[in-house]
Amino acid sequence: MSERAAPFYCPYCGDEDLRPNETGHGAWECASCNRAFQLKFLGLLTRGVQRNHVEGDGI
Ligand SMILES: [Zn+2]
């Protein structure tokens, strides 16, 4: 599973001028507010999908 989740907007200033940070691993930096942040996949929510044992899309 890929960890490449690309943000569209800076979570701090809302600007779209984001670029990958050199540290990688979901790290991004905002050229507008000069902040660096990191996206991290924490896992699936325990309440998850309504059904048990859903494999595939489940939508
Ligand atoms: Zn920003």
What does the model show?
- The chain has 59 residues and is mainly β.
- The protein has strands spanning 18-20, 27-30, 36-38.
- The protein is elongated.
- The mean pLDDT is 84.
- It binds zinc ion (ZN).
- Zinc ion binds next to loops.
Give a quick summary of the entry.
This protein is mostly beta strands and 59 residues long.
How many beta-strand runs? 3
Give average pLDDT, whole number: 84
First-to-last CA distance = 19 Å
**Hey, roughly how much beta strand do the residues contain?**
15-25%
Counting copies of identical and different chains, the oligomeric state is single chain
Hetero groups: zinc ion
Q: Biggest sheet, strands in spatial order?
A: 1-2-3
Question: What's the helix and strand layout?
Answer:
Blueprint: E1 18-20, E2 27-30, E3 36-38
Antiparallel strand pairs: 1-2, 2-3
This protein binds zinc ion.
